[in-house]
Records
---
Amino acid sequence: MDQSGEYQRGAGDPDPGDPPERTSGLMLETCYRHPQVVTGVHCTRCGRPICTECMTPAPVGYQCPECVADARRTAPRRRVRVKFILGRPGSIATTLLIVNIGMFLVEAVVGGGGSLAGGPSEVKLFELGALYPPAIAKTASFPQHYQFWRLITAMFLHAGILHLALNMYALYLFGYLIENAFGTARFIAIYFVAGFLASVTSFAFGPIGEVGVGASGAIFGLLGAWVAYNYRRRASPLAAAQLQWALILIALNTVLAVSFRGIDWRAHVGGLAAGIVAGWLAEGWGPPRIRTFVQVGGLVGLVVLGVALTVWRVATFPV
């Protein structure tokens, strides 16, 4: 600065007209897809700079359009499964549906065209394996006795398409729920143990000379197991609601059972009671070893009870 107060540039001072020097090492970058847009964001996958228009949120940071497209191409494809309208039954429930419908087609072929609506005649149903007490017990008038297998085969026969439709719809709904809740092995055990005890109850306490068919005893067993399953979890609002729904269905079916003469309410009661107990036993309780003993031993005990009841009925059956 001179005596007049004006500043004079020294030899080492920069010229005011020169552009400012870059004092930091930073360089402004532009989007690789939009060169006119300045950005400081980089694709976390390839590292290229991207603007807000090219950003796609990722689990960490953002990715550019090309990396997103590449990830979609290389990602494993998921199998698209067709779902039913009202649910997705498991493999065993689906198998039971197919077997029951297949047996009804056999009934239609054996019984003729008229059997589609009302089912085959009692003689044809008997030949296919219907439950008929004199054929199970020992009687002087019926030489072909001790056909205990009818206690199982009757579960796969139906008296007409309406009978089949109602049972299969119920199996479709509860089959999905129970198989999903209990697993495949326990679902099979509950279904057949309840169905067996339903047939035994009908044989032991039902009319002597009537033919019985239908999967309703086993299906009521599934409903009973669903009651037991949700009762254990009744503190949950969802389980409480499902328990209430199941009890309403039981009440409705009780009204139907007393309203229509052709319904075997004894099989329904036997299947429902067996299902409640089987559903409770199937989950077990206590430490792992005790739990397994309760599950297996309890279900076997129900079968033994059914066998004992059958033996008693055979011994006391009218000659």
---
Amino acid sequence: MTRPLRIEFKGAVYHITSRGNAQQAIFLDEKDFTDFLTVLCSVVKRYHFILHTYCLMNNHYHLLIETPEGNLAKGMRQLNGLFTQRFNRRHQRVGHLFQGRYKAILVDKDNYLLELCRYVDLNPVRAKIVKDPKDCTNY
């Protein structure tokens, strides 16, 4: 059975998550966080995404992205593919880094954008990694 196509259109907003294969870490050290953010910035610029917020956890990430050109799949293929290549090269690994496809939940921008930004930003607090939201950076 084929997997369903993603809904893409100009101006769409998505809550995107992707988890490490077998729930393993996708960020082993600060350099991995930096590499991911470097790739993310280049993808945002290249595909004209609007990045509302993000949260990087040890074994997954959350992004809240708006796609003015309706091109989510192309940008996400670039993001996960390029980061995986860098990660594997740096850590002398091969194969998949991420567990399956990324999840992309379409968001109602007018009603849920602010609440979803709070949800993403407070992820480390809910995971009990930090006690205070002001301490949130990368985890």
---
Amino acid sequence: MNRHHASGPILGIDIGGSGVKGAPVDLGTGELAQERLRIDTPQPATPRAVGEVVAQIAEHFVDDIGQAPIGITIPAVCQNGVARSAANIDPSWVDTDVDALFTERLGRPVHVVNDADAAGVAEAGYGAAQGVGGLVVLTTLGTGIGSALLLDGKLVPNSELGHLELDGRNAETHAAQSAMEREDLSYPQWAKRLQRYYSYVEGLLWPELFIVGGGISKKADKFLPLLDLRTPIVPAKLRNFAGIVGAACLAAELGG
């Protein structure tokens, strides 16, 4: 991938339901150039309130990033910088031009992207999808199921594969990590649900590779070996930094 041409580090900021995390990223290596800063997500998490926290993080790293654009993830479908959904954030995000709002607040170009899409871009650049041709499907297993589609390393944005209807219910309500916790399922019990989900996605898309992200991917050895798929399925490599790194990659493209 030829996106690593920025002269200095690019700031990536990952907006989540509980915390907003940011750090400058060295795009040559895909590693954080400074220790990340985390600030609790304000409640209610309106775009303007979150924008103030994003501005605090940008100010903290201003000496490291010069006038470079900033990459920002949001837990929402994001079309041309406009949020079209709201997961774990205030409903007022829907139809907000987040790109314009944050560009004005920060006084510099920003690139706003869905959080799972950012993780997919990071895995393509530096992680489990690096150098993999064809279609790669990344899924993040957490409160819901986020997804990113990568075709020959390039993002196909705003897939919502967690919202597939499966056996008469929304797939993510049945198979996300939150379902395992809510229903007190063992890993083998949860793996049966994941098997049904990944088999279904596999039959629709015939990908070359599945990547599993989200915090639970740290425990991949407890459930991935229980799955029987024709497609290889591997844990994500960038873990909690994927959103920050992917957002920075996409912002560098904006600036380059």
---
Amino acid sequence: MNTTARPEIRTFKFCSPAPGVRLDKYLAQSVPDSTRAYLQKLIEQGYVTVNGKKTKASRGLCETDTIVVEFPPLPCVPLAEPIPLTVVYEDNDILVIDKPAGLTVHPAPGHSSHTLVNAILALCPSLAMSNDLIRPGIVHRLDKDTSGLIVIAKNDFAREYLAVQFKKHIVTKGYIVLVNGRLSPEQGMIEAPIGRDPNNRKRMAIVEVGKDSNTRYQVKEYLGRYTLIEVIPLTGRTHQIRVHLSAIGYPVVGDNIYGVKSTFLSRQFIHAYRLGFYLPSTDKYCEFVSSLPPDLKRTLELLTQNI
């Protein structure tokens, strides 16, 4: 996959008989070759500025505003690669994969191949006919260094069926996480808006203009100066678990971005162990469970021995 193309920059001088119109609505009218949802993503990710400053999609515009939009170059269509995958469940509509740590979910600039998408294209060639050529079958994501369960839609009907469940927060998601410190209280809810870090677009942060984000947790075990917890994110923001736990002073073990490096684990201790949703084929609710992978099991054994 090639990403040598340069980003396209477009500049708009706001001119409208109706001042106060939302930024995303104005751009959707001014850039008819892009959907409003895509433009909202560009705004959220910091590719849109108003008068030189990043802002939010709901901002009302006035006659003095100058809007600059950077359209990042789209990657080429990904190719099938014979990457081994652990399939937990499969029917005519979906695949449930136990993703290993270290595998990126879909291609992006700077990471053009050897992703989960490349692997599932080899496993399910019909996905090449999906309406989304860049991320066929992808309904939700896991961070590259997060292991665990992810559901893949094998056709566009299944993708839409699952997408509605994620949007309405019907899907059950559970994670096993190890954090630095003895987390107290033993159960709780973290409620704080998450958006792009204004000082670093590659990071997320708790910001006033961010999206509402809610994370529930329950302590499972104290291991010396560490705590093993179950985390249930009620919303699905990028890096939500890592950002929220770091914000309350208990960063994820091995998280190099929002926490500190670990001397005994080479990646973040987050495992998506539980995933439940209604099957597109039968509308029956099913729940899947994944055991901790060997590296995380060894980490817990090491900590237990050192207590």
